[in-house]
Amino acid sequence: MSGSQEARKPSAALMKPLQPSQELTAIVGLAPLPRPEVVSKVWEYIKTHKLQNPQNEREIMADEKLQAVFGGKNKVSMFEMNKHLAQHQK
Question: What predicted TM-score, i.e. pTM, was given to this entire model?
Answer without folding.
Answer: 0.84
